[in-house]
Amino acid sequence: MRTLIVEMIEPKRLGELVTVSREFCEQPDIVAVGTGQIPGSFAKAYQVEDTVAANLVSDLASLIVNEGYEVILLTASTLGSGIAAPLSVKLSAPVVSEVIRIQPDLVVERPLYGGKAVASYKLNKMPAILTIRRKYFEAADLQGFTDSSLLSITEKKVELIAEKEEKTEGIPLEDAEVIVSGGRGIGTAENFSILQDLADLLNGAVGASRGAVDEGWAQPTQQVGQTGKIVAPSVYFALGISGASQHLAGIANAKCVVAINKDEEANIFKRARFGIVSDYKKIVPVLIETLKEEA
């Protein structure tokens, strides 16, 4: 099936979409958004520097019709979601968002109800547009680079007048293999320093529940959950986190959850592989000292 990837030039995101594309074709085409070389090998590559979704939709729709693409793949990101919905309307095409699994016979799956259920959909009409949730597919190893031709933008409906980069110190949550997260049970903003100490020893990142962010103890960029970052670390430490469904939706793909909470009835223990009913202040310092001794 003729498959088109539309994505920012970022190797990990592109690698994940290439993995998904192999469920539909041997080698996809790409519309790469942004500047720089396009990593990986694509059958045909187009490039556009404009990163405003509203400006891309009309020309993407024309390209898809003219080239006969049947499957359109985007990451479930701000850009991907901003393109997918209006593109679906423009093409009268079906769209399935937040896809986490591809089954045979054009069946795709996506989570529902904060990750408590998974829905399956069969694609009966082409072109079909899919936004792919990050870190549910192993990123393909992209070798070399692909030369591209310019995709012209015929109408700039929205002008980007300023862009401010939110810099994140250390490892981004989305890429971290270990995350140490705190909730309201942490107590104060100052207490998050102990989480940082543990994360540093494990080469990880510090996250937070929405409750902790609402209290002003952590930055919004650290929020994990349905309204924050969707993460998929190998190990996720949940300290003083109750386990609201919105938070659990954000860690649905975490391989191992370790929960420490004084409330033995906390919902987080239903998701945890390992759980300790205790004050994190008694456990984490011991864990830190042990890690230092073994370092």
UniProtKB/TrEMBL annotation:
GO biological process: fatty acid beta-oxidation using acyl-CoA dehydrogenase
InterPro entries, A to Z: DHS-like_NAD/FAD-binding_dom (IPR029035), ETF_a/b_N (IPR014730), ETF_a/FixB (IPR001308), ETF_asu_C (IPR014731), Rossmann-like_a/b/a_fold (IPR014729)
Annotated keywords: Electron transport, FAD, Flavoprotein, Transport
Gene Ontology molecular function: electron transfer activity; flavin adenine dinucleotide binding
Transport keyword on record: yes
Residues where FAD binds: 184, 209-210, 223-227, 240-247, 261
Boundaries of every Electron transfer flavoprotein alpha/beta-subunit N-terminal domain copy: 2-168
Cofactor info, note text: Binds 1 FAD per dimer.
Pfam families per UniProt: ETF (PF01012), ETF_alpha (PF00766)
SMART domains, A to Z: ETF
Keyword Nucleus: no
Cofactor: FAD
Recorded family membership: Belongs to the ETF alpha-subunit/FixB family.
Protein name, per record: Electron transfer flavoprotein subunit alpha
Lineage summary: Bacteria, Pseudomonadati, Thermodesulfobacteriota, Desulfobacteria, Desulfobacterales
Gene: etfA_1
